[in-house]
Amino acid sequence: MPETPLDIQIKTLPNQPGVYQYFDTDNKLIYVGKAKDLKKRVSSYFTKHHDYGKTRVLVKNIASVKHIVVETESDALLLENNLIKKYQPKYNVMLKDDKSYPWICVKNERFPRVFPTRRVIKDGSEYFGPYTSMKTVKTLLGLIKGLYQLRTCNYDLSEAKINAGKYKVCLEYHLGNCKGACEGKETEEEYHSNIAAIREILKGNFKDSLQQFRVQMKKHAEAMQFEDAQKIKEKLEILENYQSKSTVVNPKISNVDVFSIVSDETYAYINFLQLSYGSIIRSHTLEIKKKLQETDKELLEIAITEIRQRFNSNSKEIYVPFKVNIGADIKVSVPKLGDKKSIVELSKRNAMYFRMDKLKQIKIVDPDRHANRIMAQMKADLRLSEEPRHIECFDNSNIQGTNPVAACVVFKNGKPSKKDYRHFNIKTVEGPDDFASMEEVVYRRYKRLLEEGEPLPQLIIIDGGKGQLSSALKSLELLELRGKIAIIGIAKRLEELFYPDDPIPLYLDKKSETLKIIQQLRNEAHRFGIEHHRNRRSKGALKTELQNIPGVGEQTIIDLMKQFKTVKRIANAKLDELEAVVGLSRASKVYNYYHKE
């Protein structure tokens, strides 16, 4: 049964935390969910039998899936909440009500109160959160209450009313939980210094406060008050694990469009995050095919206009990774740090994952297009005159200076062509000499290809730095192939690429596909060479001992080594043990060889 587009989408989902969205055949959003691992969670819908009838109906109606990648599972929970509140999907029942996650409010008033709330009111107050657990909120407020004496009453503590003696201190003052600002017993400056310290705690900077908790816990433990010490320890653990802020929601970032771009040789991917009152309410990634050599700046400017028109966005400010020109009526910001920077990075991460998913899907449904894209990318990255459809990589192996060998691995259209791999036993070089060995194997390889009329590669990769590259070049010159085949050397330590007659190496992006293919070639050549080297050493070891025994052939040796593993065990074996493996006649020859006396 052929794979459907939905099957391919599920196969290529990332193993990252995020939110998934299911759409029906009319492209209508019908369900939003969160996941610690998107691929595992979404796959489970289609591989399990669901006892719950609503889930079975949901799965039948899914036509496509989209996802938004975030940093943590906590962020996914918050984003799921935002999207469900915004779009009210048909199959999301639990989170459609007006309830929301708790915040901590620092009220905009003369002596600010600090209290939990589920409603964010734009009255100049500060809101910290949202928090995924009310337990965390209560722990934070308990921490604050234990450290600072704040008022809990909702009186209007204006200077005139306090001076007029309108209020009297309450029980909280007598209990030591409040300093009596209502009777003027605490100055506004003193109170606001405490509020400043509380803001730092709520922002996540509560190092000093945690230290005070640790001191308290230690005092309780020394006084044998273990229950009290355990309570403080639990609070410490909650606070240490708690994330104070989320990149997904921040009330200070209101009604903003966020754009980022990721591109390669043929396509650009532009991600759009729409924020409304600090919450992400939409994520969309646009794929643009490059026609000319457009820059990322040009493509981003085109995409911003297109996306804003498509989604009828009227935001007056946009966040982008670099400056763009899209008209004087829109404010363009390039964030450098903080939550604004984080939201741009989140957008870029989603563009990157969208590109990766697309490439995986293309690899499944259109392998030729995938190979063409890789070849075009390698040609540009390595500054080649033609696409490297046929690549050969050489590596030497002479561990401890014995049995020097070399390996040549072949990649065609970016994939290993194992039938074309070749081993070389070094013939003309005495001792461990990597340079001379490389010169020999390159000469032998291409002399034979020329003699047999076989096609030559477009690119040769030498595992080693300038020395090995120079040796390989000598052989190409002898064969009059220099300049006809591109050749580069890759140094192991910093992944530097060396070119003939160029003292300055090329450094590729560590995440580039070109470098990954070169590394795969190098690693495959190393593996293939080591394997051959190991076989030669094993054969040499067999020859030194067991083949000295008259009347014992190679098959007998192999059978004995399979059973006993080492020559020493064979030498110490009893006659009946040897007989059980190779028969009495050959067992007697081996036994008598090691027991001559």
TrEMBL record:
InterPro entries, per the entry: GIY-YIG_endonuc, GIY-YIG_endonuc_sf, GIY-YIG_UvrC_Cho, RuvA_2-like, UVR_dom_sf, UvrABC_protein_C, UvrC, UvrC_RNase_H_dom
SMART domains: GIYc
Name under which the protein is recorded: UvrABC system protein C
UniProt KW keywords: Cytoplasm, DNA damage, DNA excision, DNA repair, Excision nuclease, SOS response
Function as written in the Swiss-Prot or TrEMBL entry: The UvrABC repair system catalyzes the recognition and processing of DNA lesions. UvrC both incises the 5' and 3' sides of the lesion. The N-terminal half is responsible for the 3' incision and the C-terminal half is responsible for the 5' incision.
PANTHER family: UVRABC SYSTEM PROTEIN C, UVRC/OXIDOREDUCTASE
Provenance organism: Winogradskyella aquimaris
Pfam families: GIY-YIG, HHH_5, UvrC_RNaseH, UvrC_RNaseH_dom
PROSITE patterns documented for this protein: GIY_YIG, UVRC
Lineage: Bacteria, Pseudomonadati, Bacteroidota, Flavobacteriia, Flavobacteriales
Places the protein is found: Cytoplasm
Domain GIY-YIG: 15-93
Entry superkingdom: Bacteria
Domain UvrC family homology region profile: 262-476
